[in-house]
Write a structure and sequence with these properties.
The protein is mostly helical. It has one helix and no strands. The longest helix has 132 residues, at 6-137.
Length: 141
């Protein structure tokens, strides 16, 4: 059986002193390191969460800027198309105007030539008719 004597109290005191020394030397530094590590982990998790939020914001901004750039590009393309159509219309009008002037000048030239030919033909017809009349009548008219 177990005898309770003065060595039991010495062993209890020895245990308490050992517990106190181990607490100071071993347990407190380990608990400090664990709490410090936990604090660093929490800070790292907060940093990670902040960076994820920032990434999502940047992704949103990028998407918005891409959308805006697409809209601007579409508007620019439409403006270029419209400018091209306007320039084409101006060129066509200019070409039609110059072609119309050339046609008008050609018609005037043709009319002048026809008038000259009519005059020359009228003179020749007069001569031919006079010659014909002289041959038919047999005398000079």
């Amino acid at each position: 059986m177990l005898d309770i004597d003065h060595t039991l109290f010495i062993q209890i005191a020895n245990f308490l002193v050992l517990l106190f020394i181990l607490n100071i030397i071993l347990f407190r530094p380990i608990r400090k390191m664990l709490s410090h590590r936990q604090a660093e982990m929490s800070a790292s998790e907060r940093t990670i969460a902040d960076l994820r939020d920032r990434i999502s914001q940047l992704a949103e901004e990028l998407e918005q800027s891409k959308t805006a750039a697409r809209k601007d590009g579409f508007k620019e393309r439409e403006n270029s198309k419209n400018e091209g159509r306007d320039e084409e219309a101006k060129m066509v009008q200019g070409t039609l105007g110059s072609v119309g002037e050339k046609i008008k000048a050609a018609k005037e030239g043709i009319e002048r030539n026809m008038a000259d030919l009519r005059q020359s033909l009228n003179k020749e017809v007069s001569l031919f008719s006079q010659e014909l009349a002289e041959k038919v009548l047999g005398r000079i008219i």
